[in-house]
């Protein structure tokens, strides 16, 4: 019933809906309507109530899981979808839920995150208007193969975002998505288990959809963009989500069935710095050279003065 009230409020988001109207449409008492509205507010939905006029929902970017799941029949990724108006981090919330054994492919989405996480303890800005979500997989692959998934999902994301952005997106190794030279999306993989088989993999994806990056701290704002900024108009969050989940599912299946071979070629064709001079920091060393290749294990190959260096982790800085 709570879901139905939410749907009514979203359908009529431009006006107020009175308690009487909701009660009549849904065949419940006004007191029951009031209780459900209070419960929705407690869950974090921004609903205002004005006496004599009724209720109005303030958030335009709400995702209705049932509608998304209807559009994704027989998909592994999106088998179950949960939407929360606000969370600390979808990765953290999904990891907390793992003790209840959610089905593989379960997705957690947040309207905003208070403690969105990047890699290596970095922070991820997650205001309302973006797509912030995580899903759980249990691949029966060794950890080395599982690590390739961050590149696989990056290829999947550029393909999805191309549909919505007016210019082609590119990948900064291993899995940052750039558009017009600025970061628009990032991926965070967290795995647990043994080296030869993992228990679970939580994949977190952040996409700046209807986000104004000027509101980010200056150091981040100068290097980030959003679909809103690239296209100059708002894009329906649920349409982006459906496209992204479909592509993630199909790339995941393709990788499990056919391996990394042709996905690697796609990655290379979309890589922002292949053939360019880059710099990486490894421990105390600075590695500087031409990025000549991405190998079949997903490593970055860098031709330094006299030797070819293989890099498996780190952040790329593009020199020219
Ligand atoms: C990433 O880390 O790019 C992974 C981001 C994953 C975020 C998703 S959202 C859903 C799920 N739940 C989570 O808590 N996280 C995942 P990294 O490569 O370390 O990039 C982090 C850096 O990107 C920061 O240090 C900033 O410089 C920059 N940054 C932060 N927020 C950004 C944003 N919204 N857009 C563009 N750049 C951002």
Structural description of this entry:
- The chain has eleven helices and 14 strands.
- The N and C termini lie far apart (57 Å).
- Strand 3 (81-87), helix 5 (90-97) and strand 4 (107-113) form a beta-alpha-beta unit.
- The protein folds into three domains: 2-57, Orthogonal Bundle (Arc Repressor Mutant, subunit A); 65-270, 2-Layer Sandwich (BirA Bifunctional Protein, domain 2); 277-318, SH3 type barrels (Roll).
- It has helices spanning 2-11, 19-26, 30-43, 65-70, 90-97, 143-147, 149-164, 218-221, 227-231, 237-258, 261-270; strands at 47-50, 54-57, 81-87, 107-113, 131-137, 169-172, 176-179, 182-193, 198-207, 277-282, 285-294, 300-303, 308-311, 317-318.
- The protein has 320 residues and is of the alpha+beta class.
- The site of biotinyl-5-AMP has 27 residues, from helix 5, strand 5, strand 8 and strand 9.
């Amino acid at each position: 019933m709570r879901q139905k009230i939410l749907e009514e409020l979203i359908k009529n988001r431009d006006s107020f809906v009175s308690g009487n109207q909701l009660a009549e449409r849904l065949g419940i008492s006004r007191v029951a309507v009031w209780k459900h509205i209070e419960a929705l507010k407690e869950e974090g939905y921004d609903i205002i109530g004005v006496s004599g006029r009724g209720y109005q929902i303030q958030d335009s970017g709400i995702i209705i899981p049932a509608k998304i799941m209807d559009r994704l029949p027989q998909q592994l990724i999106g088998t179950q979808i949960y939407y929360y108006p606000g969370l600390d981090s979808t990765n953290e919330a999904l990891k907390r839920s793992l003790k209840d054994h959610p089905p593989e492919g379960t997705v957690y989405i947040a309207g905003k995150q208070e403690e969105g996480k990047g890699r290596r303890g970095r922070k991820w800005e997650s205001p309302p208007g973006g797509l912030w979500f995580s899903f759980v997989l249990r691949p029966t692959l060794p950890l080395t193969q599982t690590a390739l998934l961050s590149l696989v999902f990056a290829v999947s994301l550029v393909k999805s975002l191309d549909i919505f952005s007016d210019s082609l997106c590119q990948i900064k190794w291993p899995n940052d998505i750039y558009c017009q030279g600025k970061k628009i999306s990032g991926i965070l993989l967290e795995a647990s288990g043994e080296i030869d088989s993992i228990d679970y993999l939580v994949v977190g994806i952040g996409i700046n959809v209807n986000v104004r990056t000027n509101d980010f701290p200056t150091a981040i704002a100068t290097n980030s963009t959003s679909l809103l900024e690239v296209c100059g108009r708002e894009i329906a969050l649920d349409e982006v989500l459906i496209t992204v989940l479909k592509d993630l599912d199909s790339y995941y299946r393709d990788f499990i069935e056919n391996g990394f071979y042709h996905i690697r070629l796609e990655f290379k064709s979309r890589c922002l710095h292949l053939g360019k001079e880059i710099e990486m920091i490894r421990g105390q060393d600075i590695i500087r050279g031409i990025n000549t290749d991405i190998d079949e294990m997903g490593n970055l190959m860098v031709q330094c003065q006299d030797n070819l260096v293989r890099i498996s982790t780190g952040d790329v800085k593009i020199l020219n």
